[in-house]
Structures are given as C-alpha cells and as structure tokens.
Amino acid sequence: MPKRPRKKYSRPQRPFDKARIIEENILKEKYGLKNKREIWKADAAIGRIRNLAKQLITKSDEEKKDFVKRLQKRGFEVSSIAEALALNKEHWLKRRLQTIIFAKGLANTPKQARQLLVHRHVSIGKQIVNIPSYQVAMQEEPQITLNIVLKTPKKKDKLKEIKDEVMDSDEGVPNEEASTSSEKVVQKEPSQKIQSAEKEIAQDVSEKSQELAEEVKDAEKEIAQDVAEGESKEKIEKETKDLAEKISGKEDKDQKEIEKEVKEKVKEIEEKQ
Question: Is the pTM here over 0.90, yes or no?
C-alpha cells in the first residue's frame, strides 16, 4: 500500500500579517523562490528538526552526538543541541541546490540557477538533478557541475578602453610611445575641459559686466537730464514771476500818470471858467 500523501507545510494562522508578508517577500527575492509555499515548507522542515532536538534534551549524550553529526552531514553548521534549536528557515533555504549553485558562482542570479536546474543543465556527480529545492549534503556539494558553458561578458575599465582606442589609432607608434601618448591623452582631456569651462565663464562674466556698465551709464544720463530739467523749470518759473511783477508795476505807473493828467486838465478848465 502506498503512503497517503500529506502536506509538507501549514499555512500561516494570520494571513494578512504585515511584518510576515514583508519578511517573506524579502526571502522570496533573495533566494529566487517560485512562491511562498517554499518558505512555508522550509519553516515546517526546521520545525521538525527543532522538535527532535527538544526530545533529545533528556536523552543520552551518544544520541545527541549522532543527531548533531547527521545535521552536520546535511550541511548545517551545528555543534550542539542548543545550536540545533537556534536553526531557522533561512538555514534550510541556504542548503537548497538552487542557492548553492548561485553561491558557487555557477549562475549569475538565483533565478538563473533555477532555470538551469529546470532545463536539466545541472548534475551532481553523474546524476542530472532538476529539483531546485533539493537539499544538498556536504559530500555532494563539490560534485555539482554544469553541463553547459555560460557566457559572462567581462566589463573593461574606462582607462583600459581609452588605452585600447589609442593603441588602435597609433598602430605605427611603438608600444612605449603609444602608452605615453595614451597617458597624455587621458591627462589632457580633463585639463582641456577645465580650460574651456573657464573661458566660457570668463566670457559670460565680461558680457554681464558690459551690460551692467551700459545700464549704469543710461541711469546716469537719465539722472542728469532730470536734474537739468528741474533746474530749467526753476529758472523759467523765476523769470515768469519777474516778468509778471514788472508788468504789474508798469501798469500801476501808467494809471497814476493818466490820473494826474486828467486832474490837471480838469483844473485848467475850472480856472478858465
């Protein structure tokens, strides 16, 4: 009779716990997991190990040592029951085949490691393994190999790229001269940029200073005109006042003379009568 399949995990009691959701999202991205069920499976597996460790607290030392050795063979860095009780789900996730492939540098990302496994490009010894959650023992870890060669382009430094360009351009120049010329080019480029920037700044400053000088001159002219206009107005007002006084004085004199003449004529007529 085949065994009845049972669940290897249990769902969280609080499905909408914010802290747990954030932690699970981080673990999912870190280890390239397909879904959160894999995290729950790891948590359940570590729970079983911790339960066994609790049961062995009252047992003999030989049983404890055997239990610790079994954990060490499976890749857990444990030396006592107390350390076995301190294990968590992340220790289990680190022993997955997908994680170890990425840790050994056989893949560039955890998701690429999963892809290589699913496509049957990974083997342990002579056996092809396509299970990302496979728990790797310590003896099996050095036997992990890839069946294909991945192309990983290497990035060149900027200085090396510049030197390569200079070497390509100076094909007829010897190596020493080419290297010195490339170094000069590298050293001249920033100085030329600085000089051009300084020239532009100097031009901008001179243009702005000229504009300011012109504005000052215009303002001085306007002030001078205003002053001149003010003085001329004052002069005109004074002259008009003087003219008005003179005119009024003449009119008064003329009237007095006329009155005198009239009085004299009246006297002459009276005397004749």
Answer: no
